Amino acid sequence: MAPAMAGLLQRGIAAPATTDAGAIQMYSVQVMRRVMLPSGPAEIGQVVHMSIENQHVLHRLPRSPATDLVRLLWRMSRATRPHPRHGHETNSSDRRDRPVFKDYIVVNIRDRSRSVEMQDYAINQHAAIVMKHAPLRKAFRRFIINRVVQPETLSSPLLYAGRTEIPLIVEHACDSAALFREALQDEEYKAVIGPDEEYMGREFLSGPPIVVEMDEKVIFSEPCAGQYRVFDILKRRPDVAPADFSAWLDREGDLLAGLEDFRKAASRRVHNHISTDTTAVYAEDGGAEASTGGAFDGVVETWAPSLDDLALFYPEMRRRHADYVDAEASFSVIATEHVFVTDQA
What is the predicted pLDDT for the residue at 223? Predict the structure, then answer.
C-alpha cells in the first residue's frame, strides 16, 4: 500500500468502494479536513470547493500527498459523473423552435467572503423550492443557475474586467413573458418562494438584483457544451445608437459563425439583444434596479472547454469591439452551469 494511502487509513479515512461522484466528493472532503488541519473549517470548505468544482485553480493548492490525491479524485469524478448538463429535466424538442422569453438575474453580494455560502444556498436549497412549484415548472423552458468563478482564481484573461461582487447569474426562459408573470403571481409562489427570495436578499445581497430581459440569437451550437460558460456583458458607447449597436452585434455573430478556428475553441455561442419592452415582468414589483433600466445593451454567451484557447481570440475581438462597446462600462464573468430545466441539447 502506498505510504500516503496508509497514512490516510490510519486517520480513519477509508477509500470509497464506488466510483460514484458523490462518494468521491465526500472522500475528498474527509481527506482535506483530516490532512490539512489546523486550517479552519471555512478555509477548508473554500479549498474543497475550489478543488472539486474548478479545475483551473487546482494548481493553487500546495503540493502534498493529500492534495495530489484530491487532484486524482477530481479527475476520477470528472471521468465518472454525468456531464453537468445531464440529469436535469429536458423539455420536449417541439418547444425549441418557438420564440422564447428570456431573462438573467444578476446578483450582487454584500460580503464577498460569503459568496460560496450564497452560491450553495441558491443551488442546493432555493432551487429545490422553485422546482417544487408546479406553475414555474410548467412555464420553464430553462432554469439554470450559473455559479460565477471569482476572477482572482483565474489564470486565463477575460475579454473585459471581472466583477468580484457577482456570485450568481440566474437564467430563466419561458414560452412567453405572460406565462412567466402568471407563475410569479401564483399564491403558492407568494407564500413559499417569495419569502425565501426575501431571506436571500436580507442575508446576502447588497441591493436588489439587476434583471435583464433579452431577445436571444443562437450563433452556433455543438451537441456538447464546454465546461465553462463565459458571459460578456456589454454596454454600448454613448455615441452609438441602439440600432447601430444591435446591427453590429449581429454582424459580429455572423463573422464568428464563419471562423473555423473560433468554432474549435468554442462549442456554443449566443448573442442576446437587451429588450426595450416597457412591460418588463419584474417592473411591477421592483424599482429601476430590479428591471433592465438600460444598464446593458447586449450579453454574449460563449461555452468553451478551455479558457486559454478562447482567450487567444480576445485581442482581435477588442479591436473589433472598440467602435461600438464602452470597454470601461462592460464586464466579463466565467461561470459553471447548474442546470435544472433546459430546452437545449
Answer: 79
Write down the pLDDT at residue 52: 44
> The domain containing residue 137 runs over which residues?
89-342
Task: Tell me what the mean pLDDT of segment 234-238 comes to.
Answer: 96
Please give the pLDDT value at position 152. 82
Number of residues that this document lists for the chain: 345
Residues 59 and 153 in one domain: no
Q: In which band, very low, low, confident or very high, does the pLDDT at 126 lie, cut at 50, 70 and 90?
A: very high
Tell me the three cell numbers of residue 250: 449581429
- Tell which of 22, 50, 80 closes a domain: 80
pLDDT band at 80 (very low <50, low <70, confident <90, very high): very low
Return the higher-pLDDT residue of 211 and 198: 198
Q: Report H helices in 165-274.
A: 177-184, 187-188, 194-204, 242-257, 260-265
* CA 85, 91, 93, 95 torsion-angle sign: negative
154-168 pLDDT, tens digit per residue, is 889 999 999 999 999
Q: Coil, strand or helix: which one is 90?
A: strand
Total domain count, the chain: 2
Cβ density class 230-266: b for 16+ within 10 Å, e for less? bbbbbbbbeebeeeebbebbeebbeebeeeeebbebb
Residues 6+ positions from 162 with CB-CB distance below 8 Å:
150, 151, 154, 331, 332, 333
Say which residues have a Cβ less than 8 Å from residue 110's Cβ, sequence separation at least 6: 204, 205, 206
Kind plus residue range of the DSSP H or E element containing 297:
none
Residue partners of 224: CB distance under 8 A and separation at least 6: 83, 267
